[in-house]
Design brief:
Helices cover 38% and strands 13% of the residues. By secondary structure, the protein is of the alpha/beta class. It folds into two domains: 3-306, Alpha-Beta Barrel (TIM Barrel); 321-354, no CATH class. An eight-stranded parallel β-barrel has the order 3-4-5-6-7-8-9-10, surrounded by four helices. A two-stranded antiparallel ribbon has the order 1-2. Strand 1 and strand 2 form a beta hairpin. The longest helix has 18 residues, at 247-264. The mean pLDDT is 96.
């Protein structure tokens, strides 16, 4: 297991993390998984034995039950691992039960600490942009939590590029805690983050953590054109994520991952993770396994060595469209390229025949 620096902090996180959205299984999240504390303890043991040192959760997962299960399962391991959690989404019906206000952030952090059975959260992330609360208020609340010792580092999740830059600018202007990371959705099928979000991370020195790198189960190889999924798979239920614009393109990508996997005698999931983990700007992939077998298979991506040709085939087949202004910069900005997004611009140029 490789340990990578989390953005501009001195913290080291494992290149694979264990996500806990599958822990609990209540309030609609039973469609994702229903792992109890005993099974979670076994999965945590497997993860730790493989070198994982970071576990990701959120207050909204099973409306707090995921945090409870994680806290019970970690027990004596708590001092040896890192816990990341999130705040922002509604946790009740009241007018102040959601958002990134000072009131909601501090209140929910204290509740998360009680559920996790710990005195601090190592990385506390704003789960979504709040278009009502001034970002200065949110940052001040996070700064307070850091100063009080309840939080060690702060980050964001699901921010646009401009929202991330507004956050960083406000932190600098007011002398408040700066985010060290961003948690985003990024898969071989969904590479939109390469337009702005990954370059922002590279430019601003942010660690980038990838949630659901297998597309919430889409890229495991179980879903095929001629094969429907059963209800024991989240994509076999009415789970709404992720949005897929072009399902034929999705199936083409799955076919390619399966083909390459068959050539190595491994799963399509392993191929997708092996390709994604070393993409420019990526710090760590958050695994969201539903059981021990899936977790072990996902962890084995570290052992898979894809050839340069295989890397290139996946990249070409999944490359996003060079939309404006990217095609224009790719075409006319080669005299002074921007280091933060040059790896992606170089791939756009291939599409443009340059």
């Amino acid at each position: 297991m490789e340990y990578r620096q989390l953005g501009h902090s001195g913290l080291k996180v494992s290149q694979l993390m264990l996500g806990t959205i599958t822990f609990g299984g209540e309030a609609g999240f039973e469609k994702v998984g229903n792992i109890d504390a005993e099974q979670a303890r076994r999965m945590i043991d497997i993860a730790c034995d493989a070198g994982i040192n970071t576990f990701d959760t959120a207050n909204m997962y099973s409306m707090g039950l995921s945090e409870e299960v994680l806290g019970k399962a970690l027990q004596k391991k708590r001092d040896d691992v890192l816990i990341t959690s999130k705040v922002r989404t509604p946790m009740g019906e009241g007018p102040n039960d959601g958002g990134a206000s000072r009131y909601h952030i501090i209140r929910q952090c204290e509740k998360s600490l009680r559920r996790l059975g710990t005195d601090h959260i190592d990385l506390y992330q704003l789960h979504q942009w709040d278009g009502v609360t001034p970002i200065e208020e949110s940052l001040a609340a996070l700064d307070h939590l850091v100063q009080s010792g309840k939080v060690r580092y702060v980050g964001t999740s699901n921010y646009n590029g401009w929202q991330m830059m507004k956050t960083m600018a406000a932190a600098r202007e007011h002398g408040l805690i700066r985010p060290v990371s961003q948690q985003i959705y990024y898969t071989p099928e969904a590479r939109e983050a390469e337009y702005e979000i990954l370059p922002v991370g590279r430019d601003q020195g942010l660690g980038t953590l990838i949630w659901s790198p297998l597309g919430e189960g889409l890229l495991t190889g179980q879903l095929r054109r001629d094969k429907a999924l059963s209800s024991d798979h989240r994509q076999g239920t009415d789970w709404p994520e992720p949005y897929i614009h072009d399902r034929e393109r999705l199936f083409d990508i799955i076919d390619l991952l399966v083909e390459i996997g068959d050539g190595h005698g491994v799963s399509a999931a392993r191929v997708a993770l092996a390709w994604l983990k070393d993409r420019p700007g990526v710090t760590s992939l958050i695994l969201g396994a539903r059981n021990e077998e899936q977790l072990k298979d996902n962890l084995a991506c570290l052992e898979l060595e894809l050839s340069e040709e295989e890397f290139a085939r996946i990249e070409e087949a999944t490359r996003p469209v060079p939309i404006y202004p990217y095609w224009h910069r790719a075409m006319n900005g080669t005299d002074r390229p921007e280091p933060a997004d040059e790896p992606f611009m170089a791939e756009f140029r291939k599409t443009m025949g340059m």
